[in-house]
Amino acid sequence: MPVxxxxxxxxxxxxxxxxxxxxxxxxxxxxxxxxxxxxxEVAQRTGAxxxxxxxxxGAAVRAAFASIPEVDNLILCAGICRYGLMQQLxxxxxxxxxxxNVKGIYHCVNAAMPGFLRRQxxxxxxxxxxxxxxxxxxxxxxxxxxxxxxxxTKALAKExxxxxxxxxxxxPGVILTDMCAGxxxxxxxxxxxxxxxxxxxxxxxxxxxxxxxxxxxxVTGHVLNVDGGYAI
Length: 232
Hints:
By secondary structure, the chain is of the alpha/beta class. The protein is built from eight helices and seven strands.
């Protein structure tokens, strides 16, 4: 039974991934930071194991992975966003975005690495964004972190490929998760209209793309756009 670890598993894309991988029969562990009730509900409904952990905290990540068997699939969904002009963004918020969105990947990959290297196999999927590819006004820091995720994915794919470890990335477009809760409905409707497939995305759309990448044994270093064609 494959062991799959998913960060940010209490909501959004992470929750959809927990649901998909448990349905496949994987032994799933998911990390979450604050959404205790949501995490309990997901764990009870799916049979996955919930672990409260801030991925920006290296010691907490190492402690979490110490309670998890050697990992087959590591899916890195944890992420946060801040909206507003760059000059209005505090240095604290800038640092927090990079700590969660980028350093969190560093902590989790390193925590899973001993098992990956011992067995000479493993799959890592990171979650970037179309804004990491093309940039977004009023989301400069978020775009920067997601661009960093893409660069890190490609570098790790080259570094870890000889050890049998694949590293890929999904770049979602507008996905109807909590991150969109504060976005005006008219703006969301306009973005759906500008998307070639005619709608905004669902978390399940991204989870299916992630599953493809964990199964695609001859694919590594790839950034898979899951945006309905918005950023063609």
